[in-house]
Amino acid sequence: MPYSYDDQNIFAKILRGEIPNKTVLETDHTLAFEDINPAAPVHVLVIPKGAYVNADHFGSEASDAELADFQRTVARVANRAGVSPDVGDGYRTISNAGPNAVQEVPHYHVHVLGGRRLGRMLQPGG
Ligand code: 5GP
Fold first, then answer.
1. Which of 30, 24, 60, 58 is nearest to 43 (CA)?
2. Residue 50 phi/psi, 5° resolution?
3. Is 104 in the pocket of ligand 1 (CB under 6 A)?
4. How many Å apart are CA 115 and CA 21, to the nearest integer?
C-alpha cells in the first residue's frame, strides 16, 4: 500500500531546522525532543528522521538500522528521564495513527510519558 507523506508537517519542519525544538537525544536516524504541550512531567516525542507517516509505514518500509535505532532511542529516553522501571516509577509509550487515534501530526512519532500516575490506558469517547 502506498503511503503519502506531507513534507510540510510540523515535525518535517523541525527536522529541517525551520522550527526550533528542545532536543533530548539525536542519533543518525532518530530525534527525540520535548513535547510543546506536555501532558505529563516527562513528555518526550521520538521521531525517525526519515519520511514516515505512522507506525505501520515505518514498520513496513524503514531499514533495519532505522528500526533498531528508533527503539534504542526510546529506551535511552526513558532511562535518561529517570522513568524506566529499572530506575524510576514507569512510563507509557503512545503512538497515534490516523483519525480514530486523533493523530495530529502526520510524521511517525512515539510519545514517552511519565513522571506521574497516568491512570488507565484509554478514556471513553474522545
Ligand atoms: P499526535 O496527536 O499527532 O499523536 O501528537 C502530536 C504531538 O505533537 C502533540 O502532543 C503536540 O503537543 C505536539 N506538537 C505539535 N506541534 C509541536 C511543535 O511545534 N513542537 C513540539 N515540540 N511539539 C509539537
1. 24
2. -75, 165
3. yes
4. 21
Q: Does ligand 1 have an atom closer than 6 angstroms to the CB of 19?
A: yes
Whether 109 is a known active-site residue: answer yes
Rounded Cα–Cα distance for residues 81 and 100 (Å): 30
User: Mutation test of ligand 1: which of 105, 109, 110 has the most ligand atoms closer than 8 Å to its C-beta?
Assistant: 105
Show me where the domains of the chain are located: 10-114
Amino acid at residue number 49: K
Q: Give the model confidence (pLDDT) of 29-57 as tens digits.
A: 999 999 999 999 999 999 999 999 999 99
Residue range 10-114 in CATH 3.30.2290.10: no
Torsion angle, alpha carbons of 106, 92, 73, 3, to 10: -20
Whole-angstrom distance, CA of residue 109 vs CA of residue 31? 10
Whole-structure pTM value: 0.97
pLDDT in tens, 52-69: 999 999 999 999 999 999
